[in-house]
# Entry
Amino acid sequence: MYYKISILLEIPLIAIHFTALWLIFYKLSYQESKFKRFMLIFLMLVYRPVCIIVNPFFYFSLNIVIITMIYAVFYSLLVVLAGGKTRYKAIMAVYHWGVTSFLDIIISCFYVGIKGSHPDSYRDLYLVLFIFAVAVALLAVFYYWVMRAVPQEALNRVPLHYWLVVLLTPFCGSIAFFIAVSPLDVLIEAGVNNYLNFSLSATILLMLSFSIFYCYIKLITGYNARLLADELNKAPPVYTPQNGLSSEFVEKYGLSKRQAEIAEALLLGKANKEIALLMNIEVNTVQVHLQNVYRKTGAPGRYALMALVGLGK
# Structure
């Protein structure tokens, strides 16, 4: 395997991988701590350099245990630093790690199957890396699109063992296909068609995994909405102009004190600029807090939030 580092080509790779991680671990779960935000961004920036350090273990020593441990530590740090509840963050990490591992194998098999050999120059190697990076970015867009309006409470209602089928499908698939295509030289001698067959089969399995994940999230969201409607009908008012949001509502959705204050000001009919002046903060800060309120409650906007607390009745 030809291995050479090009600084000029690494810059766009760092940018693509950073964007993918930013969508999943930052945009979906905004961290209020400035220190944790800084560390999270730092980890996103060093993701590709970490890959540069780890890849030689794969190309030259095939020490899969070391590779797995390094990536496990990296994703564990992302889980710790990202905002939101632990289960929500763990779901993001496991799904992203499993699918990207599967994507790596699929793209590598396609390349070998089409060309008939391993990358024999650093240009060919970077071609594969760029295709993989773009695929990971598209995965992040898909994940963000599916998860952006799903409240954390909806995910926490589902028992953890039900998540295993959805989360581990791509991860187990990547392990199975890695075992099947190793050692690579044997398959090349047997014929490049084996690689195309592996890659096509793996692509079908990956598309099936995406479909299962999408349908599962939709079912969870609908189920949570029905349960929430029943709970709100039976529960006392969660908001009154005199008392603001009830402590039960704030605790249920995990709202911070600042998020609750901004939500209460919004429910009083104040615009974002008025809230910013009232609390002596920037308008952008108000918008960030409101986006977190919308994400945690599952209400996609101010009118949906009003309906959620009973003002729409």
In short: The longest helix spans residues 193-234. The chain has a mean pLDDT of 78.
